Amino acid sequence: MGDLSRDELDGIYAFAVELGKQAGKMLTDAAQLRISGGSGSQKEQEHVQKENAVDLVTETDENVEAFIKGQIMEKYPSHKFVGEESYSKGTSRDYLINDDMTWCVDPLDGTVNYIHLFPMFCVSIAFIHKQKPLIGVIYAPFINQFFSSCAGRGAFLNETQQLPLVRTPVPALPSNAPSGCIFSCEWGKDRRDAPDSNLHRKIESFVNMAAEVGGRGGRGGMVHGVRSLGSATLDLAYVAMGAFDIWWEGGCWEWDVAAGIAILQEAGGLITTANPPEDPATAPIEEVRLGSRLYLAIRPAGPSSNETGRQGQERTVREVWRRVRNLDYSRPGA
Amino acid sequence: MGDLSRDELDGIYAFAVELGKQAGKMLTDAAQLRISGGSGSQKEQEHVQKENAVDLVTETDENVEAFIKGQIMEKYPSHKFVGEESYSKGTSRDYLINDDMTWCVDPLDGTVNYIHLFPMFCVSIAFIHKQKPLIGVIYAPFINQFFSSCAGRGAFLNETQQLPLVRTPVPALPSNAPSGCIFSCEWGKDRRDAPDSNLHRKIESFVNMAAEVGGRGGRGGMVHGVRSLGSATLDLAYVAMGAFDIWWEGGCWEWDVAAGIAILQEAGGLITTANPPEDPATAPIEEVRLGSRLYLAIRPAGPSSNETGRQGQERTVREVWRRVRNLDYSRPGA
């Protein structure tokens, strides 16, 4: 961790946890206003009615980011801040995270869910140093799921239950993965119907993962279940928990995944790129690049009788790569 | 309600609510054993490791059903009981619900989620009289979401928040629905790769709902989001809540949907058949047949300036029918 002491990091973690709780409360307070029809309800109602707008950003989103940024700048004025809202309003589309101590924040992930009051929305706060997410806080206040981690301290659900949840022992990945696995994926906002669009590449990949073994010209993965929550952040949290075995996605941004990556890695999970390399069977499995917009996450795994947990994870990565298409998302500077 | 008084029904409702709470606690207690590695953990672990078995039934499932059935038979010995587990073990595949007072119970919906400890699992308890689900109780204990309803008394989240959640006013359905809607659907267990299999009919329908407007030969629905939770029961609960606008599914059974239908209808939602009639634009929209295995649910909706809530729901049903394929599920006696 270089110029960052254990004590300093622990202090930042405690601060991030409190910040997450307060931001989560802002999200539920604003939702409650809409439910009970308070003074803010008409404006919120307009958002709900704003049809056909898949990329919808609420006022709450901006308020919560301003709050989080203000708290951080007051406590740690030397740290950098990268947030979804400020990025969207900026002129650069470059990847802005360097070796500095940086907070990477999504004040509201699962915006569409939040608009519709489906509980799978959350605040996501990551602290990054030397390009590595060291602290992650994810809070889904509507369902009281608070995920947090700090490098060297473990990852937790609601501050008490260590992740992954099943740990005596941590289950190995199935020997015939992806069969037996819960596969988490998202349809996303890119719905162009062109023949080789990301939508169709995704669908082809999803169907390969889902179809019976032997189907799809040998690509059928017969996963145990296919899940789509509408929140990349919570997808990652559930992979860290061990509830989802595999998450595969393209198109999201560093603030969607930074906290989730911190929590997943601290829990023992693996994360690499969504796009299969030229030789998926033998290519080295590299650590994810945070700004790559292409992610494949595998849950924490224990050993089986004939392989280590890491070997099981790598085997699962290769089995996924064999079944998915390359997605077309890029990023300047990443 | 014929030979059932208001007082009697209220008494049955209070009993059902308590029953749901106890059954939900049994589910979390059994999950906790697995997490902390108690005496039951090895057996449970075997279930987790039982790869490739999409239709997995746990011991807990059977225990909870036996408990619920026992409590009901003790309190109301004259009532009939239809449960997932007892049905599966019986010889008849017929639809068994008639005009008698009948409890229709799924002790554990979202079994795959439960195996993996993904929180979207629940107990589902319905009380049916003269073929109509009058009481519904759905409890997802891991995320503290308790849904309940009784005919004439309203539908509620956690016994205090009336459904749908946004009610001042209840929002109209978008004028260009399914655009602007959250579409909930499930991949299910039927993953045969034959050219016109249910898997491919579902996928074609999902893609029509998701693709950009103008895409898919004019069928593109550009829904706001596509969600798959792995629990038909919770899908319906979230439609009743107003969080999901549309749920479309084939293949589930009456115990998967009876409580959800009770709650949805009491909240003001509409439920009919998944399979489009010959003329989707003009065919009458009939009330769902409980045992039909084919369901299309639309959330509670308020009026807009030019149509009633019901008109908006029927318009949305027709827009969905225009985009989906017939599914091939049938049922003797339904």
Summarize the structure.
With 334 residues, the first copy, chain A, is α+β, with helices and mostly antiparallel strands. Chain A is built from 9 helices and 12 strands. Chain A starts with 5 loop residues before the first helix and ends in a 13-residue tail after the last helix.
Which structural traits does this protein have?
homodimer; 334 residues; alpha+beta; Fructose-1,6-Bisphosphatase, Chain A, domain 1; D-Maltodextrin-Binding Protein, domain 2; 2 domains; seven-stranded mixed β-sheet; five-stranded mixed β-sheet; 9 helices; metal ion binding (chains A, B)
Can you characterise this structure?
2 copies of one chain form a homodimer. Chain A has a 7-stranded mixed sheet, sandwiched between helices. A 5-stranded mixed sheet of chain A has the order 9-8-10-12-11, sandwiched between helices. Residues 47-57 of chain A have low confidence and may be disordered. By secondary structure, chain A is an alpha+beta fold. In chain A, helix 7 packs parallel to helix 8 (254-267). Chain A has helices at 6-36, 41-49, 59-75, 84-89, 111-116, 198-210, 232-241, 254-267, 309-321; strands at 80-83, 102-109, 122-129, 132-140, 145-150, 154-157, 161-162, 182-184, 225-227, 246-250, 270-272, 294-298. In chain A, 55% of the residues are buried. In chain A, 36% of the residues lie in helices and 18% in strands. Chain A folds into 2 domains: 6-162, Fructose-1,6-Bisphosphatase, subunit A, domain 1 (Fructose-1,6-Bisphosphatase, Chain A, domain 1, 2-Layer Sandwich); 182-321, D-Maltodextrin-Binding Protein, domain 2 (3-Layer(aba) Sandwich), CATH 3.40.190. In chain A, strand 4 (132-140) and strand 5 form a beta hairpin. Chain A contains 9 helices and 12 strands.
